Amino acid sequence: DFDDFIKKGRLTGYGGTDFRPAFDYVDALIEDKEFENFKGLIYFTDGYGIYPGKAPDYDTMFVFVRQDLKRPEVPWWGIRVEIDADEVTQRF
Predict the structure, then answer these.
(1) Which residues span the domain enclosing 31?
(2) How far is the C-alpha of 57 from the C-alpha of 48, rounded, in Å?
(3) Does residue 52 contact residue 46 with C-beta atoms inside 8 Å?
(4) pLDDT tens figures, 4-47
(5) How many domains does one find in the chain?
(6) φ, ψ of residue 80 in degrees (nearest 5)
(7) Is 0.90 topped by the overall pTM?
């Protein structure tokens, strides 16, 4: 369960995520009317990966854990937010 994952799990990054399937999935859900008045997507990421070539029809926030590392730029249509690692771990 989620609590065990938080206690024992370890998140790693720099794997070159392809963000496009997540956007395709959300777009399909919107098209199938699974959402009413969908406002936006929040994507927790290290930023390394392949972004969609065009802006989605909804707001998108890319959330980074603030570290001393330089993070890649997000597309012009994305909202970039950085949080401290302590903000994440203190909540769980």
Answers:
(1) 2-89
(2) 22
(3) no
(4) 666 666 655 556 789 999 999 999 999 999 998 999 999 988 88
(5) 1
(6) -95, 125
(7) no
